[in-house]
Amino acid sequence: MLTYEGKVALVTGAGGGIGRAHALMLAERGASVVVNDAGVALDGSATANEPAHEVVEEIRAHGGDAVADAHSVATPSGGAACVKRALEEFGRIDLVVHNAGISGRSPIDALSEERLRSVVDVHLFGAFHVVQPAWPHFVDQGSGRIVLTTSGVGLFGLSGAAAYAVGKMGLVGLVRTLAIEGGPHGILVNGVAPFAQTRMAGQVFGGLTDKLDPALVAVAVVALGHPSCDLTGRIISAGGGRVAEVFMGATRGYFSEDLTPEDVLAHVEQITDRTGFEVPGDAMEEVAMTAAHYDAPDDSRSRI
Description:
By secondary structure, the chain is of the alpha/beta class. It has helices at 17-28, 51-61, 76-90, 113-141, 152-156, 162-182, 215-224, 261-266, 268-271, 283-291, and strands at 8-11, 32-36, 65-69, 95-98, 144-149, 187-194, 235-239, 242-246.
């Protein structure tokens, strides 16, 4: 059994739904948990709710160790306060799970910049705001785990969800980059793309709703965040008992040193042929796919 004895986890947006499931399962397996939730409405507006305290009481009632934190991760100071809470209460931090989010449904022609920014501030910038202050502590101790919550909405798109998709797809790039930067320091970073029955999801899943217990997402996060997990830079889809990797690949494409716009349209089928696709490890490995067509060696990586 995977245990978290002696480990400290910070879970954002843990006052309900999927985040609550993460916090409960981590605590059940021995982690000391900072349960962060600003207690806002689905659109991010302020309320008088204190859901983080309710989750903490639930954890303590079952013999677990947890403290509540109500800071908003939408600001740098709020994110730093979350990490500080972990250090002050438990003396260390081992795992950051960024799950906080607000709803962002709006057709593009009705999407205000204010709404776009409010969604991205929580989902994408919220990740920066908790990861950056935790990062030096991970480096100092030579270990750390980060799980960022992305979404199929960002990966595959969904009508009327442009703001949400922007924030969630930005997290995919962040996962990939932090995994590269963190590797030499023992910091492993992955993303989870969950689907579960929650307040935010409503009835969008129809007849499948009853099968989508948030705990079936938490099991994937608990696995990814464990010290024994050696995966990094991966995006794991989880929901309803199914766990799968979502990845981006590149087709072999069409090549010509004298490429013209006409060439592109004439070879669309070859350009988009996914047979024999490759999965680059980073951006420069995709550049190497072009370099392979030339006699000159690929030295692009040496210039970045």
